[in-house]
Amino acid sequence: MTDPRSRMDSLAHQRVEYGALGAADVAADPYSQFAQWYEQAADPVREPNAMVVATADPDDPRGPSARVVLLKGFSAEGFVFFTNYDSAKGRQIAADNRIALVFPWHDMHRQVRVRGIAVRTSAEESDEYFAKRPRGAQLGAVASRQSEPVESREALHRAYDRASAEYEGREVPRPEFWGGYLVRPVEIEFWQGQANRFHDRFLYRSTEGTPPLDAGDRWTITRLNP
Ligand SMILES: Cc1cc2nc3c(=O)[nH]c(=O)nc-3n(C[C@H](O)[C@H](O)[C@H](O)COP(=O)(O)O)c2cc1C
Questions:
Q1: Is 46 noted as a catalytic residue in this protein?
Q2: How many helices (H) does the chain have, and how many strands (E)?
Q3: Are the beta carbons of 30 and 68 closer than 8 angstroms?
Q4: CATH of domain 16-129+177-223
Q5: How far apart are CA 188 and CA 193, in angstroms?
Q6: CB 70 near ligand 1, within 6 Å
Q7: For 73-114, where are the alpha helices, taking DSSP H only?
Q8: pLDDT tens digit string along 68-103?
């Protein structure tokens, strides 16, 4: 068996090739920069659309909460994900719609961090996305009281079967409690890992003052200490 210490040793000496991110390389606006990195992440990163979403209800003494969700859309308006509006995150957003996202693209030694304001997508946009989901996922969304306690796995299956029977032979309508959020960014940071922990960090902020940002806003780009 390999001595675990020698394994630690070889990890410590592992050399990682980092790409650099210089002031001349970053795009003038963060949306183009994100689009470029997202495209580059498609190959090395297994699920580049998996992002951590952090929310906090200021009245909850337990503090902030974070979980992974999938990015389902991205444009100069912001970042879109879908979920249950009555879930823990939905309730936190209802209490305080300030939100943070992290794209942890370890395989590329990259990270993108977004702070922003979450607003519900329009009913039409949520309907459109819901209609494209596989029927099983639609029934799952109808049947799940996301984040609420459930007595057993069997109880979950029963709820699914009830939904399945209810909509047999017809389309599953989007439940009102399910839909999208658009995260309108206030600031976006791009982090590129570098040797000696001397990482490159660039922070985009709007010069227009109050959040959220509008597509036509101007940006300042600041390099941060690692
Ligand atoms: C890879 C991955 C993708 C996920 N995608 C979603 C998603 O798009 N929407 C969602 O509501 N939950 C998604 N989840 C589940 C969430 O992490 C979380 O368990 C759920 O939304 C309940 O969170 P809450 O109780 O904080 O509201 C995903 C989990 C993983 C690990």
A1: no
A2: 6, 9
A3: no
A4: 2.30.110.10
A5: 16
A6: yes
A7: 88-95
A8: 999 999 998 899 999 999 999 999 999 999 999 999
